[in-house]
């Protein structure tokens, strides 16, 4: 490709423009949301990080059969390495996101709460590693599941409040509470609080996200490890 790694930034930007045109200009889903442009940018950039980790993690074992058959090494290194590659690729993406939310009107104000963002990002990374381990074993066992990852990710996208606020569409408090337990909703909500709105995320949000992150990592590691001897076989 001519633009190469520039697509790491261009793709979420173009996706954001599409979502802005449809949900912001046509459907007016941004009504009542302060700084909808920044809200949308953070949603698209941060969600795609998890979506990419899930996708590459899911295919890491099935795509590395030759390596698995040739060398003896912890098989978990494959999905973990895939997530680490995505994390390194995410560095310029995050920098671009931070610049855009400050430069594109209405401008976000840089506050000391930006220092909390690395904590949110780290918890998201841990969560990503956990679901990558889970998906890697599932897809290695049932190859057809790789075709369902995209459908699941799309459903997850709409269920995470990437380009609209659930408060504007869901009136039932019980349903709203359940929706807000979605780990990606929590990631986006906390990121918007610290980067856009100058708010410190509530303690409950930290607890929920940390629980999802550590729970996913522990479950993913145990689940993946239990299938260690089966990887690479026909």
Automatic annotation (TrEMBL):
Question: What is the first-listed, main subcellular location in coarse terms?
Answer: membrane
Keywords assigned:
Cell inner membrane, Cell membrane, Membrane, Transmembrane, Transmembrane helix, Transport
Which species is this record about? Sanguibacter suaedae
GO MF assignments: ABC-type transporter activity
Give GO terms for biological process: lipopolysaccharide transport
The keyword Transmembrane helix is assigned to this record: yes
Q: Which regions span the lipid bilayer?
A: 6-27, 39-61, 91-108, 114-136, 148-166, 203-225
Name the membrane topology term. Multi-pass membrane protein
GO CC, alphabetical: plasma membrane
Q: Which family does the record assign?
A: Belongs to the ABC-2 integral membrane protein family.
What protein name is recorded for this chain?
Answer: Transport permease protein
Give a Pfam family name: ABC2_membrane
Q: Where in the cell is it found?
A: Cell inner membrane; Cell membrane
């Amino acid at each position: 490709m001519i633009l190469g790694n520039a697509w790491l930034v261009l793709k979420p930007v173009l996706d954001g423009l599409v979502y802005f045109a449809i949900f912001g200009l046509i459907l007016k889903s941004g009504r009542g949301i302060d700084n909808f442009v920044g809200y949308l940018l953070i949603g698209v950039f941060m969600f795609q990080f998890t979506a990419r980790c899930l996708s590459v993690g899911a295919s890491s074992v099935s795509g590395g059969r030759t390596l698995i058959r040739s060398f003896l090494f912890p098989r978990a290194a494959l999905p973990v390495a895939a997530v680490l590659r995505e994390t390194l690729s995410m560095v310029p993406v995050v920098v671009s996101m931070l610049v855009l939310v400050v430069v594109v009107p209405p401008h976000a104000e840089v506050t000391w709460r930006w220092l909390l963002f690395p904590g949110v990002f780290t918890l998201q990374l841990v969560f990503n590693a956990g679901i990558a381990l889970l998906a890697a074993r599932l897809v290695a066992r049932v190859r057809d599941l790789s075709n369902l990852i995209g459908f699941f990710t799309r459903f997850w996208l709409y269920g995470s409040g990437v380009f609209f606020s659930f408060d504007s569409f869901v009136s039932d408090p019980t349903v709203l509470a359940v929706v807000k337990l979605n780990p990606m909703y929590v990631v986006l909500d906390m990121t918007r609080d610290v980067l856009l709105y100058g708010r410190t995320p509530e303690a409950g949000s930290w607890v929920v996200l940390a629980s999802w992150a550590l729970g996913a990592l522990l479950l993913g590691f145990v689940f993946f490890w239990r299938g260690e001897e089966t990887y690479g076989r026909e």
